[in-house]
Amino acid sequence: MTDQAVEREVGRARLRKEDARLVTGQTTWTDNITVTGLLHLAILRSPMAHARIERIDVSPALERPGVVAAFSGRDLADGLGSLPCAWPVTEDMVLPDHPPIAVDEVRHAGDPVAVVVARDRYAAADALEAIEVDYEPLPPVLDLEAALAEDAPLVHADKGTNRAYVWPLRAGEDYEAVRQRADVVLKRRYEQQRLIPNAMEPRAVVVTPLAASGEYTVYSATQIPHILRIMLSVVTGVPEHKLRVVAPDVGGGFGSKLQVYGEEAVAVAVARKLGRPVKWTESRSEGYLATHHGRGMIQDVEIAATREGRLLGLKVDLLADMGAYLMLVTPGVPILGAFMYPAIYKMDSYDFTCTGVFTTKTPTDAYRGAGRPEATYAIERAMDELAAEVGLDPVEVRRRNWIRHEEFPYTSIAGLTYDSGNYEAATDKALALFGYDDLRAEQAKRNERGDTVRLGIGISTYTEMCGLAPSRVLRDLRYSAGGWEAASIRMLPTGKVEVVTGTSPHGQGHVTCWSQIAADVLGVPFEDVEVVHGDTKVAPQGMDTYGSRSLVVGGAAVHRAAEKVVDKARKVAAHPLEASEDDLEFKGGVFSVKGSPEARKTIQEVAFETFTSHDVPDGMEPTLNAEHVLDPENFSYPHGTHLCAVEVDTETGQTRIRSYVCVDDVGRVINPMIVEGQVHGGLAQGIAQALYEEAVYDTEGNLVSGTMADYLVPSAADLPEFVTDRTETPAVSNPLGVKGVGEAGTIASTPAVVNAIVDALRPLGVHDVRMPCTPERVWEAVRSAQKEGSA
Amino acid sequence: MTHISVTVDGTTYEDEVEPRLLLVHYLRDRLGLTGTPIGCDTSNCGAGTVELDGTSVKSCTVLAVQADGGEVTTVQGLARDGEWTPLQRSFHEHHALQCGYCTPGMIMAARDLLRENPHPTAEEVRKALEGNLCRCTGYQNIVRAVLAAAQESAAPAARAASAREVTA
Amino acid sequence: MIPPAFDYARPTDLDEAVRTLADAGEDAKVLAGGQSLLPLLRLRLAFPELVVDVGRIPGLRGVREEGDTLVIGALTTHHDVIHDPLVRRHAGLLAQATETVADPAVRHRGTLGGSLAHADPAGDLPAVALALDAELVAVGPGGRRTIPARDFFADYLQSTLAPNELLVEVRLPKREGWGFRYEKFHRVAQSWAMVGVAALVRRENGHIAEARIGLTNMGATPLRASAAEEALVGAGGADAVARAAQSAAEGTRPSRDASASPEYRAHLARVLTKRAVLAATGTG
Fold this sequence. Notes:
The complex is a heterotrimer.
Chain A lengths: L18 H6 L14 E7 L5 E7 L1 H4 L4 E6 H5 L27 E2 L5 E7 L2 H8 L3 E6 L6 H4 L15 E10 L2 H6 L3 E12 L8 E7 L4 E6 L4 H12 L6 E4 L15 H13 L3 E4 L2 H7 L3 E12 L5 E13 L9 H6 L10 E10 L13 H19 L3 H6 L10 E2 L5 E2 L4 H12 L1 H14 L3 E11 L7 H6 L8 E7 L5 E5 L8 H13 L6 E4 L17 H28 L6 E4 L2 E4 L2 E7 H10 L11 E7 L8 E11 L5 E11 L6 H20 L30 E6 L16 H18 L13 H16 L1
Parallel strand pairs in A: 1-12, 10-11, 14-15, 20-21, 27-28
Antiparallel strand pairs in A: 1-5, 2-4, 2-6, 3-5, 7-15, 8-13, 9-10, 9-12, 13-14, 16-17, 18-26, 19-20, 19-25, 22-23, 23-24, 26-27
Helix pairs in contact in A: 11-20, 16-17, 17-18, 19-20
Chain B lengths: L1 E7 L2 E7 L5 H8 L18 E4 L2 E4 L12 E3 L12 H8 L9 H14 L5 H7 L11 H15 L3 H4 L7
Parallel strand pairs in B: 1-5
Antiparallel strand pairs in B: 1-2, 3-4, 3-5
Helix pairs in contact in B: 2-5
Chain C lengths: L6 E3 L4 H11 L3 E4 L5 H6 L7 E4 L9 E4 L2 E5 L4 H6 L1 H6 L1 H7 L5 H6 L2 H7 L5 H8 L3 E6 L2 E6 L4 E3 L2 E2 L6 E8 L4 E8 L9 E10 L2 E10 L6 E2 L1 H7 L5 H8 L16 H19 L4
Parallel strand pairs in C: 1-3, 2-3
Antiparallel strand pairs in C: 4-5, 5-10, 6-7, 6-10, 8-9, 11-12, 12-13, 13-14
Helix pairs in contact in C: 5-8, 9-10, 10-11
């Protein structure tokens, strides 16, 4: 073959293009950005969970050295609208006003009340102490059930209720009827504690105004530059075309930067008022109050089953903590989960209701997995309870209920059409890697001996809906945007390639993966591809990065756009070769005439000929540029089986993970190294929910776990080595066959760990441990089970 | 204001600083050396780990005046003539970073470990990195990268033979 | 976050340091390694007018022997304590406990004297100082005085050092032939001890002849588990140790916070005492 040597890129563990800047410290985190005349913002926040602002005087701050200006919420109210909620999940959803900076009332500890503008960050921080605020305390609203009581104090008095919405989903047979004929009915309550996402880069925003033309550039540590541009335009009144939003290097998000934050709007408002560039960077403990939280749900789950362990029906009653306001997708997070409670199982009836509840706490919103980890946790915990109830091995009870691989495509009872999957294969592989039978044998021995340190084995099988989302489905869910993604490709005169993507990576490795995809389609070297993203000026169209959507939608759009470039190039190549397009073969970046391989042109030659445009077909535009906006036809459905073995010290309650095995099926893999990395990180966060992390509030509504010293993000010393593997069942609903991998590890691992802990303690009479499974909770569970046992 | 003289990545700087100025803010805001980031305010995250007079410190928990007369090395001062150190290479080759925010601190902490213990076990690596938090990687590839860098330092010649990348 | 403004003094010798502290009165804070003070300043939980940086005063760093006593300079860093051969030989408990303090970078800056003077009952070293019967040497305007560890910890974050005194030395009696163990219980590697137990045990003829137990985070100050110490005398096997350890929480007043209840802390004190003593006797 005379084809130029272009290796197939997709499927290779290409090292990342992103790394060079990051390992040498040549980064552009938002806080690194500085411009001449930059002023620094510091924000005064409410120390109370709920209070009326009786009086606020910012003028003493102006006396402090280096202070340029200071504003209360009222001072800025004229130029700022309410922060947006893009997901009014029901027609009658209660949507309270959400000023970017509080005006009359504060509704959670950390609600902003005033802003100081100073020459440097030290001066700004000092001046906050000079601002005088008188608060009239109002009762905090902290407990979800109490908040719904008739006479409960209200978070938003003008709304007359703390109930934000009630969202039902009923499918299949009537649940009551199914319940009647069930041999076994199990009712369980699970609690999803509040979590703090903890992206390692704190949030930051820099706004540079061009006063003469009314233009603003907003640099923000955001996952969503495109959505932010639209929403900031609405909130601040700066016309969309006068706003440029840049997401520079962004240090992680996990959903916490999928948001339109008050500070972003306030920074624009202050820059507009002063005509000066401004910067705001949150401190970690400030972020714990001001950056949205995740989870926060009470799940009442009931399953009806036969005595053989076959599921008949599932009823879920959910109370979801909205926090003080409805932010960008706050109300929708539990709704994403609504479709996932039935998981990989077949059943006759599904009855789901979610009630959104306001509390005087930091608003909740998307956190890695967003609704799906919660759903998976509840069903996977309940499946273990069912197994115990009917005396089956937890693996067996899943086998009896899951969708068999020959049944795909399968429409779940919640109405999702799972396009592909093979739960048997993933589970078999995981069991073998884990050494399941040996561990069970060891467990039996140790239980028999009555060891102080018990061995527990936890399983979690899961699927998730990724690749958000078909726009028409979003319409049906009342989400206010589409789910498409845009890509454009420019083949430059020298044959180099620029890929412009609407996704906005913050650690995922899109630059590397999109390069692999484009290089394969175009037949150019990986190194010849540059990927541009995260700046509305150079990547004007996009829906950004969240919900494991980037590859499935955005990567697929890159693929399609590259195909269009090849189609154009084929036309240009055919012309001088005097061949019809159909007679041209394209392989490894070379067009050749079928049957006469000496008549050939490389795509790079074609690119230059297109540039000179001396001999292109009549009527053809002289570019090798193409654009594709892809609206997915379906979600994608990764799945997998996770197994966890724990050692639980019943004397202290301490849990140690002994081994962790997962086999995930994320469809076709573009870069196995990156996929593995995503799984590792997901596992760490899911395990952290099971064992360590919780946003704890006291009875006054203060965040007790208010610093990184109190909120336990695990370190390398706290986590085990993971064994990860894959099965590969390609998705059929996108051209790449990919499914998405960003959330899989988080979704599956939490129930695997807790199932393992409960499994270890079940012989002692324990049926549940509330998350995080702290040593004290485990110890308490054992103790109370023993008391009950002896009573 | 207090006068300080600090050598950072080979260059000596003389400055008047407020005594309360944190070393990390001195590096970032005064010297423009933004390669060292800030991830928390309680000395937990380790993102701002640098080397001060030969040992790792958290630059957010050291005052600039405490570094007076001292020698600071940041992640920006590691490469020589564009040649990365074994740890930098190893982090890249083992995909030990995703968003990369913790990476400067991780590399500096790992460097400190390998100076004291050139041949650590995986468990020793995990223990040595207990003061550095990462939210992306689950640490597995960080541990791999540090072990590989240790091995490489032990046998530089073996490097060429070691897998550049893994095709799965 | 950002520390509040303060004045700064960097005395070059002990006399100057003491004079500076004496002149400043109550509003001065001593800065040694800064690993406890700087987080407090950054969270604006402390507002000193003057910070006296004693970090460069000569002669306060390092370990030496004086007969049967080990003398550790107050400015000796945790890192140096851990690696010091004299400490490892004569006060292994201190080296072992110090290895559990915070993380390597913090241990490079943090000092033994600073940790003790900070008097945090959740800190690991105060309980160890109690168990080891340390003596703390302070210098003030009136000269040197020696404070036994049992008289040093006054209350939560409060030592009996006067504002114008500086801790300069920690003196430990060498303990030959004692087994030791620091059992620290915490949820993640970085977090403070929920409870810690520092055990020193001397055995004769297979039985415990003497036991010294220091408790971390079981009250407003570090404590000795005196009842357990007494009960342990004469204990031979594991069962006897376990029985004696049942009294480990007697006389303690553990706090309730987000990480544990007093009841659970008391339980942990008993379990960890048993484990520490068994490990110290080499039978655990």
